[in-house]
Design goal:
Radius of gyration: 20 Å
CATH topology: Metallo-beta-lactamase, Chain A
Shape: globular
CATH superfamily: Ribonuclease Z/Hydroxyacylglutathione hydrolase-like
Strand order of the largest sheet: 6-5-4-3-2-1-14
Bound molecules: zinc ion
Order of helices and strands: EHHHEEHEHEHEEEEEHEHEHEE
Number of strands: 14
Largest sheet: 7 strands, mixed
Helix content: 25-40%
CATH class: Alpha Beta
CATH architecture: 4-Layer Sandwich
Distance between the termini: 23 Å
Structural class: alpha/beta
Length: 324
């Protein structure tokens, strides 16, 4: 039995985004943070505020991402039913989960691995439950080489602690692609993504809710016909978490790089009749303002072609929770 993290409130399905960046962790450098803070301070006064007691009121009038950006850590998502949870990938965002778990008593973790690009596994050696006796970490993946690769993360000279010296018990489980697998009480079906190295998205089901995890994904296949056996990922999904690292105008140059766009996500929602999508795997080359610029372009594309869908859509930000 695992403990119940703070952000769980009711039955159904809750999704928490511990890391939403793509490819490599990225924060602004010091100088650009200062420029960003300068802009926010100017906005404070332009908005008619003048006293320090009004700071909270000003912040509440903005979205969190306007003030703090969309996040710096790479991909890690947690899906919970209120009693149990599973983690999807161990990018640098898993460190925040680790920090939280250390003192909340959760002693068993279930981690799905989509593929082995660095941004999806780089946080694993820093997930502290690995080092603690009495803890158990279960890894699940379609890839048969998963155990070898996870073992290789804990190895000198790139990491000081050997796999054999880990305090926790580590267990490896195989997932079957295109089949319903049971993972800690969740039904998980892996589907193939459009990505240069074999990568799987996950359909996660519990309590009549469906979460469709679709990064890293260029989404070259957009229709049910083109997706074929992989169309099952999106059918009746309550929330799609979708790779939008790039902008459609850049896709000619970035063809084959394995990442998608907001436009492609809208198209998927249109083709499958879906109602909610969050865009992520944010481009590490983007500043906060660049990401807001990308969002503005997505908004224009949505208004022009997809507004009839009445979609609930947004950019995911680090630390965000969504209840389904
Ligand atoms: Zn990635
Ligand atoms: Zn990748």
């Amino acid at each position: 039995m695992t403990s119940i993290p703070q952000w769980f409130t009711l039955k159904g399905m809750n999704v928490k985004f511990w890391g939403v960046r793509g490819s490599i962790p990225h924060s602004l450098d010091t100088q650009n943070w200062v420029l960003h803070i300068e802009k926010i301070m100017a906005d404070f006064f332009k908005s008619g505020y003048s006293k320090s007691e009004q700071i909270q009121q000003f912040i509440k009038s903005k979205s969190l991402a306007e003030i703090g950006g969309f996040g710096t850590a790479t991909t890690c998502v947690e899906v919970s039913d209120g009693d149990n949870s599973i983690l999807i990938d161990g990018g640098s965002g898993i460190k925040s989960k680790s920090d939280q778990s250390d003192y909340k008593g959760q002693k068993e973790f279930h981690i799905l691995i989509s593929h082995f690009h660095f941004d999806h596994i780089m946080g694993l050696p820093f997930f502290t439950p690995h080092f603690m006796k009495g803890y158990t970490i279960h890894y699940y993946s379609v890839h048969p080489e998963t155990e070898d690769i996870i073992r290789s993360l804990f190895k000198k000279p790139t990491f000081p602690v050997a796999f054999e010296g880990l305090g926790a018990e580590i267990k490896f489980h195989s997932l079957k692609a295109h089949e319903k697998n049971q993972v800690n009480g969740f039904t998980v079906t892996p589907y193939k993504m459009d990505h240069p190295d074999l990568c799987f998205g996950f359909r996660v089901e519990k309590n009549n809710k469906v979460y469709a995890h679709a990064v890293d994904n260029e989404a070259v296949r957009l229709t049910k016909g083109a997706l074929g056996v992989d169309a099952g990922l999106y059918e009746n999904a309550d929330l799609v978490y979708f790779d939008a690292q790039y902008e459609e105008a850049d896709m000619q140059a970035k063809k084959g790089w394995g990442h998608g766009t907001c436009d492609r996500g809208f198209e998927i929602c249109s083709n499958f009749g879906l109602k909610q999508i969050l865009f992520a795997h944010h481009d590490p080359a983007f500043s906060i303002e660049d990401s807001w610029g990308q969002k503005k372009k997505a908004s224009q594309a949505y208004e022009k072609k997809y507004s009839h869908l009445n979609l609930k859509w947004d950019f995911a930000y680090e630390g965000q929770t969504v209840k389904l």
